Amino acid sequence: MSLDAVGSGDVRARTTLRGARVMRLGPVSLLVRTRALLTTLVLLGLVAVLAAYALSVGTFRLHVAEVVQILLGNGGGVGERIVMNIRLPRVLTGVFAGAALGASGAVFQSVSRNALGSPDVIGFTTGAATGAIAQIVIFGGSAVAVALSAVVTGLFTAAVVYLLASKGGRTGYRLILIGIGVGSILGALNGLMLVRGDLDDAISANLWLAGSLNARTWVHVWPVLVGVVVLVPLVAVLSRRLSMIEMGDDVARQLGVRVERTRLSAVFLAVLLAALATAAAGPIAFVALAAPQLYGRLARMSDLAVFGSASMGALLLIVADLTSQLLPLGLTLPIGRMTGIIGGIYLIWLLTRPRSV
Amino acid sequence: MTPPGHSEPSADVEPRLRADTVTLAYDGRTVSTDLSVSIPSGRFTVILGPNACGKTTLLRALARLLNPHGGQVVLDGKDIRRYPTKEVARRLGLLPQSSFAPFGISVADLVARGRFPHQRALQQWSQADDVAVTHAMQVTNVTELAERSVDELSGGQRQRVWLAMVLAQETPLLLLDEPTTFLDIAHQLEVLELCRRLNRHDGRTLVLVLHDLNQAARYADHIIVMRDGAIVAEGAPHAVLTPTMLAEVFGLQAHIMADPITGTPLVIPIGSLSSR
How far apart are the first and last CA of chain B? Predict the structure, then answer.
């Protein structure tokens, strides 16, 4: 398959860079990595297909064709209510939380120059969870309040880690080690709140903590959906500069990149994305860590790929959700636990490989 | 073809880059106070000096990677801080001592990143970018390696790739911080010969920080000697490299004779004065 369908004649030109084409439209010229573009399109296609399938499975079985009809507005009856009120919010929460985590992970891996740099490893997700649990256990807040608290404490945690890590020069390892330390403290705090809290609240907090797409409503969907639609393109705008910073602060600066400003903006956006995902679906492990890596390997991309990582994140989350629903275990495994199990195995594999971390 | 012989650049050309009484500090520690230096245009300048004498700090200040606490760096007649960042990057390229190749990046892709200051968000690749990358790879002799991953290369190859990246930037001024470190002697000479060609044929102004006195003597038109953050000597190699200077600045007892091949000063170290 080639890009021939996209344009014709001299609109596209080959470059000295292998696998890259330039698309020109008037004064605009975009460098397109053919393989990366195709990979992203395939991933998005898979997300769409699996999402449609996910809308059809459940106790009340529907045909995929029926689902499509319902989505086109030609539905009606019980089927429509189930799809529009129960299944669609669940699927969309999963897709957008996954996309947010994928993009967020891509930024953190770039900033820390390390495959372990991911919001769930460096404590930001735990920090977001602290706010959410406090809200559930102590204040008994609504879903919106829980989401808001998660975002606020996630950002606060990030600010603390960032400040601590920037003393004496910020290196990737420093950021990760301090993040792990801060994350452990917050993890203990989270555990403490669960033990001290009222039993019912503790159970609902625990459910949230397991990371779940069950009982998602439109209230959960909107924040993360809007977040992804607005923030991911912003991150993408920064991605070229972030790629330059990966070569070292001095190299980037001498190439004309405002390093501190770029990095701070990108980290802020990435924390926001991770916190929105956490608020919507609970702390979901592994997706932010793995999505950028998997995408990078599939697309053979060495540049920071925001859209690609987001697509991969969405795919991973929807696959994990479907797997946890379809496993013939008679138990609905919370999705956060599912991704945790897969993620643990992936992490061990990553760590035992030479030269990748 | 111009012969590779010495086409003496006019020495009185207004220097494009200079520092005016700059005070340079790192983490609150002052390295240089009221330092002034001019980089002669169109020349091959080498900065020499013992470890931790402020060579890298000066280079970083000249490239605006470090803001002076006092004084100013002047690029083409204007305070360097008054340029847009990308404009500085189109006039002046710097290769720092440490840099990281992103995991799995190909040689061509890394070299292409040198074009960043010439590009914009919606103008990501032009014909000029293509020409510059191809040329930079040819000059540094890495065209054959274009598709290879930078991680797989030897130290010498990798250094040439980084040089190619800065060359693709196509800046008239090039500052290289110890470009020969970690290279074996043949590769060191290869890099220095390349720098000489860039200076003599392309007319680029070069500033190198080097440790090897004899390489400095052989390749430089102009030598700047630093100690404790100050400039203690400056001028043509034969004028600067004297036994007195070597004793004072490097604590080195040395004999100096004419290099039998090139006629430039040849430093024969006898011993360290500080160990006596």
Answer: 53
Token pair listed for B266:
């040849």
Between B111 and A167, the higher pLDDT residue: B111
Q: Which own/partner pairs from A295-300 qualify as long-range (CB within 8 Å, at least 24 positions apart)? A: A295/A39, A295/A43, A295/A102, A295/A106, A296/B104, A298/A39, A299/A33, A299/A35, A299/A36, A299/A39, A299/A40, A300/A19, A300/A35, A300/A36, A300/B104
* Mutate which: B106, B107, B116, vs A, most A CBs within 10 A: B116
Q: State yes or no: pLDDT of B51 exceeds 60.
A: yes
Residue of A nearest to B62 (CA): A254
Q: For residues B202 and A166, give the distance between their C-alpha atoms in angstroms, rounded to a whole number.
A: 41
B97-131 exposure pattern, b = at least 16 Cβ within 10 A, e = fewer: eebebbbbbbbbbbbbbbbbbbbeeeebbbeebbe
Token pair listed for B164 = 């190619």
d(CA B143, CA B133): 10
Residue A332: per-residue pLDDT: 62
Cβ distance of B130 and A29 shorter than 8 Å: no
SS3 call for B167: helix
Is the pTM above the cut of 0.90?
A: no
pLDDT score at A331: 61
* Sequence-ordered list of residues with C-beta below 8 angstroms from that of A100, at least 6 positions apart, any chain: A224, A227, A228, A231, A232, A273, A274, A276, A277, A310, A313
Q: Any chain B CB within 8 A of the CB of A254?
A: yes
Candidates A18, A22, A256; nearest CB to B147: A18
Interstrand relation of B70-75 and B44-48 (parallel, antiparallel or unpaired): unpaired
* Residue A348, pLDDT score: 79
CB contact under 8 A, A248 and B116: no
Q: How far is CA B149 from CA A213, A224, A300, B154, B169, in A?
A: 41, 37, 11, 11, 21
A175 contacts A263 by C-beta, under 8 angstroms: no
d(CA A352, CA B145): 29
* H-helix segments, A197-258: 199-209, 218-245, 249-254
Question: In which band, very low, low, confident or very high, does the pLDDT at B148 lie, cut at 50, 70 and 90?
Answer: very high
Residue A70 three-state SS: helix
- Determine the angle formed by the axes of helices A143-166 and A218-245, rounding to 10 degrees: 20
**Joined tokens for residue B198:** 């860039």
Question: Could A28 and B123 be called an inter-chain contact, meaning their C-beta atoms sit closer than 8 Å?
Answer: yes
User: Can you list the alpha helix ranges (DSSP code H) found in A216-334?
Assistant: 218-245, 249-254, 259-281, 287-299, 306-326
What is residue B181's predicted lDDT score, i.e. its pLDDT?
86
* Mean pLDDT to the nearest integer, B130-148: 94
CA-nearest of B166, B158, B98, B176 to B135 is B166
pLDDT tens by residue, B209-248:
999 999 999 999 999 999 999 999 999 999 999 999 999 9
At B12 the pLDDT is 54
**pLDDT, block means (10 residues), chain A with 357 residues:** 38 73 87 92 97 88 86 82 89 96 95 85 88 86 82 91 75 82 91 83 80 81 94 95 94 95 93 91 87 89 91 93 76 74 76 59
